[in-house]
């Protein structure tokens, strides 16, 4: 298995030199970088380094951190405390409701940001994706 550094080097190459190939097979220009959770700190360092390289190359880089999105979204709706109170007694109901309501909100959020960048040579970096589990799969 390639090292984290090798994975980021490949990602850099794809984004800087081969972006036109990203959507060939899936129809959507999307790359998922999977790494060992023990490498989280190193991964964040590599992400920052990659953002800098992409920016230096003239690309607009927008990071969309997902670690807190679910909690921030429900807090904004005034429902976060209710979720915390309901979860101990009915966890399956809470998880089902979270997944049902959260997914469309996340999609709208990503689309809104992508539309703001329309016409720019841009890269969206969704980070902290593992924090969406089990709410979004």
Architecture overview:
The chain has helices spanning 4-17, 40-56, 69-76, 80-86, 91-116; strands at 60-65, 122-127. Helix 1 (4-17) packs parallel to helix 2 (40-56). By secondary structure, it is mostly helical. The protein contains five helices and two strands, in the order H-H-E-H-H-H-E. A two-stranded parallel ribbon has the order 1-2. It folds into two domains: 1-58; 68-120 and 132-137, no CATH class. 53% of the residues lie in helices and 9% in strands.
> In angstroms, what separates the terminal alpha carbons?
24 Å
SS field, number of helical segments: 5
Q: What does the oligomeric state look like here?
A: single chain
- By helix and strand content, what is the structural category? mainly alpha
Number of strands: 2
Q: Into how many domains do the coordinates divide?
A: 2
Using only C-alpha atoms, the radius of gyration works out to 17 Å
As laid out across the biggest beta sheet, the strand order is 1-2
Question: Which band does the percent of strand residues land in?
Answer: 5-15%
Would you spell out the secondary-structure blueprint of this structure?
Blueprint: H1 4-17, H2 40-56, E1 60-65, H3 69-76, H4 80-86, H5 91-116, E2 122-127
Parallel strand pairs: 1-2
């Amino acid at each position: 298995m390639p090292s984290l550094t090798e994975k980021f080097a490949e990602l850099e190459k794809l984004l800087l030199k081969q972006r036109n190939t990203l959507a060939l097979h899936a129809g959507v220009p999307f790359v998922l970088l999977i790494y060992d959770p023990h490498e989280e700190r190193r991964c964040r360092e590599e992400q920052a380094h990659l953002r800098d390289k992409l920016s230096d190359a003239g690309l607009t880089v927008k990071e969309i951190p997902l670690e807190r999105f679910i909690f921030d979204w429900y807090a904004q709706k005034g429902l976060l405390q209710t979720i915390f109170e309901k979860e101990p007694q009915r966890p399956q109901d809470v998880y089902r409701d979270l997944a049902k309501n959260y997914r469309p909100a996340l999609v709208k959020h990503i689309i809104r940001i992508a539309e703001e960048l329309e016409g720019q040579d841009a890269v969206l970096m969704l980070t902290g994706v593992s924090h969406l589990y089990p709410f979004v799969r």
